[in-house]
């Protein structure tokens, strides 16, 4: 995926303009960051209209359904967008009373880490516009192995968000192992429900989810795609999921949102949406494994 908020738009441009050159796609990404489109495909943050210099990734839930189970730990990372003070930007997961895990590309650009002051989070509500608990953001802590590139994805696409106050919602347990090939994860988020989505006002209000099969890391489709080769493929510490019926997966607005597995009747955080190898819903999705990065997460949050 790309790197931050409007990188979402960059991914979307890449997925929907597959026949253009990288230079042409870069121009599309620039246009997206000016508010002409709002979803992405490689990491999928919901693009922010009218903000130059911010990049981002996006993801959406395609082929899924609205969630009916309440997840205490789900997070919408939000920021003013136009007249909406609570514009959805990326997903996230509460991992401690005052810490949220999201994708690094959601809070960075090639120029560095974004200013945390304009952001806030809504925690524990299926409706991203109301309910749950709201907290301001104090700090973004990006994984030291992450690199913000304009036209390719990076390993270690994780960042921790330090909240200005604690919340009472129950955090998600961190998975102790990476999901194996043949298992299933539940991808979640508030991303677009169609690969053609590019208007932030059309992001779903209600949380959505879809069950996806885990693929072996050496699956060719996890490593490279038709349009961009290995630019957005699997990296060290990632895992990869397939697309049931050829039309299911994540997309714009889903970046940073949790991928869940159930152990002993309890949901665990196994990964977070980073990017897709190619087009939304039709090519594999890539997630940093929480188990592979658990030591770093624990070191930061204490």
Automatic annotation (TrEMBL):
Q: Which residues form the Peptidase S1 domain?
A: 61-302
What is a single Pfam family found in this protein's UniProt entry?
A: Trypsin
Coiled-coil residues are none
Concerning InterPro entries, the annotation shows: Peptidase_S1 (IPR050430), Peptidase_S1_PA (IPR009003), Peptidase_S1_PA_chymotrypsin (IPR043504), Peptidase_S1A (IPR001314), Trypsin_dom (IPR001254), TRYPSIN_HIS (IPR018114)
Signal peptide feature range: 1-45
Keyword annotations from UniProtKB, A to Z: Disulfide bond, Hydrolase, Protease, Signal
UniProt cross-references to CDD domains, sorted A to Z: Tryp_SPc
Give the source's domain of life in one word: Bacteria
Entries under Gene3D superfamilies matching the protein: Trypsin-like serine proteases (2.40.10.10)
Specify whether Ion transport is a keyword of the entry. no
What SMART domains has UniProt attached to this entry?
Tryp_SPc
Q: In Gene Ontology terms, what is a biological process of this protein?
A: proteolysis
Molecular function (GO) terms for this protein are: peptidase activity
Q: Known PANTHER family for this protein?
A: FI18310P1-RELATED (PTHR24276:SF98), POLYSERASE-RELATED (PTHR24276)
Q: Which family does it belong to?
A: Belongs to the peptidase S1 family.
Q: What name does UniProt use for this protein?
A: Serine protease
In its UniProt entry, the species of origin is given as Streptomyces smyrnaeus
Q: What is the lineage of its organism?
A: Bacteria, Bacillati, Actinomycetota, Actinomycetes, Kitasatosporales
